[in-house]
Amino acid sequence: MATGSYRNGVSKGSVKVERPFALNSNIKSSNIKSKPNSTTTSNLRRSSPGSLGGSAGSVKDDAGVLGRVRVAVRLRPRNGEEMVADADFADCVELQPELKRLKLRKNNWDSDTYEFDEVLTEFASQKRVYEVVAKPVVESVLEGYNGTVMAYGQTGTGKTFTLGRLGEEDTAARGIMVRSMEDILADISPEVDSVSVSYLQLYMETIQDLLDPANDNISIVEDPKTGDVSLPGATIFEIRDQHSFIELLRLGEAHRFAANTKLNTESSRSHAILMVNVRRSVKGREAAISNENGDASYLGKSSKPGVIRKGKLVVVDLAGSERIDKSGSEGHTLEEAKSINLSLSSLGKCINALAENSPHVPVRDSKLTRLLRDSFGGTARTSLIVTIGPSPRHRGETASTIMFGQRAMKVENMVKIKEEFDYKSLSRRLDIQLDRLIAEHERKQKVFQDEVERITIEAQNRISEAERNYAEALENERLQHQKDYKESIKKLEEQWAMNQQKRDKERSGVEPKDDSSDVKCSREGPSSSASEEIAELKQLLQNEINSRKAAEQEANIVKAQLVQWKRSEAVRNAEILNLRKLLEEEAHQKEKLEEEITILRSQLLQLSFEADETRRSLDRGGSGKGFSGLDSLVSQVRHSQIKDSGNGQKASIAKLFEQVGLQKILSLLESEDADVRIHAVKVVANLAAEEANQEKIVEAGGLTSLLMLLKSSEDEMIRRVAAGAIANLAMNETNQELIMAQGGISLLSITAADADDPQTLRMVAGAIANLCGNDKLQTKLRGEGGIKALLGMVRSGHPDVLAQVARGIANFAKCESRAATQGTKSGRSLLIDDGALPWIVQNANNEASPIRRHIELALCHLAQHEVNAKDMISGGALWELVRISRDCSREDIRTLAHRTLTSSPTFQAELRRFCSLAEALPSTLLAPC
């Protein structure tokens, strides 16, 4: 259910929480058993890995709650044809809705009684059908469970009416699909919830996208751990309103395959599958909305992820089961019927195995059972409605449908809720919070860096100023000391000069006797004066030393402050580095997680690739043991062509295919021995008749070899058998494109022109007729002469050849009609351009029933395109349409012709003109008049 990356098959972006199904007032307790206690859990039947319910790995957290498949039966009213055909007989079905019983009459005195969860009469309204069948499932899906609503029954019993009716003209006729979406859209909140839709069809064992027709080969992917089935290639549309949903349904129905059979004019030839995924937020819706708008307060409080519930509703409109002799299917329609019956048979086998608690459930026999593996025996809540008709002519099909519903009632599912933690929303909130924290950190870091830079600059300025002041003070002190020293010297010199003069005077004016005393005084006087000067100089020097020490102490204090500031800056830088390291570690962790996610994605892709390779290798299988020598191989090929009855011949060819191998058989097509080539091409033709072998033949180059034989061989038998093999391969749409790409239509046209044998012409006409049924190849087929080749083969006159020609023209006309309805074609019909209209008109009332029926259908389809009306009037086709609308033995063709006549303005104008001349036509054809 998760949409993020996957780790070993489990979503990394979401964690599943599976809880038991919550019982409420809208769900009947009789349909869901109570949860077993721990002592009885071991006695519950668990689905085997191959069961429809998925692998045991999906039942992991809780045991869940057992819930039986609910089955309702709905009776279709008698139609006009049944009222006429069964007028003298009573209905074979008797309903007792108040007892929820149904009686199926064997004869007038004996009947079988069956009980269902609901019994709906032919008068039951569409609203009641929805409320008793689908509404409980829709309510479960809205609560987070998976749910399935499926319709099963014979062709023409009202399955598509019950499920897919749009009800645009009459709102009371709305089907289960439209009503389910109305309830879903009314219950969800568009702001926080979402609804997405995929619409698919399973046609001829190929899953195709009804919303994108070009997407015509969607693969099924199974989770190897949980067993969940998904279709990753399907187109998904988000639904916002009911109108867009109805437009999608209308688009899908226009692309769905339908055909005209005896049981139903517009019979569905494919299984339609509507998948609705509902994603709901359980809590925190208002908080989630405020979070999207950037509410920071919520980010601080929301540390836990919200809970998301994801429910899936699957509505399956199965194609109707039918008997070939009753439906009248032929050609490509016959192959469609085979594919439908094969898939329905596989579904029945799986339900039988689940009802009987078989250890093996053949879930891989069909893509339908693989898609529905969760609906029967799985974890989904399933409701099945079986539709039946009242006619005693179809009693056998009615009994088979009833028994299918009875067996389905025995199947029990382990119903589980699907909850996930909404890690995506939490991750988005955390990303927003992380971005805000990073921005806040960057702002704080910028402020811190600016502050550190400011403090650094201020410290540098103060240091510079202190150094400058110290240098100036030191220089001033030095200059002052020099000045004082010079003044002291000058004073000493002056004093010495004065003393010297004084001594000279005293020496000249004193007697000699006194000379000794004078000398003594003169000596004492200068001596005391010099001592005083020395003491003063020492004092000045000491003062200078003290000043210098004080300056040095101040310088040391400034340096200490600078060191302290540098240490503080280093601490802040360390903090910044730590923060940067934390950010780098967070980024590294994020990168590591992203790398791990990338590795896990690559591992998942590798596992998917290996699983695909293993599946393809298993599909191709081994080539078997080969024969030693070409002679042994040729003898085996010739021995396989000995005439035998029915299954014996097929068994011998199948045995030969296993023993010899396809490559060796194809190599014999190029043998120089003509007899060997004949026997080899017969073996290849017989193998090509089986659908299981066609893909292998084409992959091994068998188609190319057959086309080369058709081109180069001159043997009539080889060309006839090769054309038959190509006709068998042309029943597959993919092979049709390959045949056209390799020039197959040109070779078939040349063969048709050269051959005279009716059987050869029948094979060639059958191959071209199959190619005519492909919408994509019409223009190319006509451009390479396919239509002219078909018309050229009518020269044979053989009924079998004419029947194949008529079938090809009907297929071509049907494709043109569909293209005109879809708006992809606007010009005149290519059949009319190539001159096919005269032959069509000429054989519209052919005695041979197959020829007449195909020609009548071709006329009806040509008439549906208004641009062909004038040519059909001038060619006489209008009166054939009038005859068909009145005299055709098949009611569906009569109805189609009548509707075409009344809806065409050109035809109505011509009929009114004719009425004015002669009132010879019935009034029912002149409604516009």
Briefly, what is this?
With 929 residues, the chain is of the alpha+beta class. The chain contains 33 helices and 21 strands.
Task: Give an overview in words.
The chain contains 33 helices and 21 strands. The longest helix has 106 residues, at 515-620. It has a domain at 65-282 and 305-421: Kinesin, CATH 3.40.850. The strands form five sheets. Strands 3, 4, 5, 9, 10, 11, 12, 15, 18, 19, 20 and 21 form a twelve-stranded mixed sheet that branches. Strands 6-7-8 form a three-stranded antiparallel sheet, with helices on one face. Strands 1-2 form a two-stranded antiparallel ribbon. α2 packs across α4 and α20 runs parallel beside α23 (758-772). The two termini are 59 Å apart. It is an alpha+beta fold. Mean pLDDT is 77; it is low at 1-63, 284-301, 517-522, 621-652 and 924-929.
Number of helical segments?
Answer: 33
Rg, please? Answer: 50 Å
CATH superfamily of the domain at 65-282 and 305-421: Kinesin motor domain
Topology-level CATH name of the domain at 65-282 and 305-421: Kinesin
Helix percent reads: 55-70%
Q: Specify the overall morphology.
A: elongated
Biased composition (Low complexity): 26-50
Subcellular location: Cytoplasm, Cytoskeleton
Pfam family, one: Arm
InterPro entries: ARM-like, ARM-type_fold, Armadillo, KIF11-like, Kinesin_motor_CS, Kinesin_motor_dom, Kinesin_motor_dom_sf, P-loop_NTPase
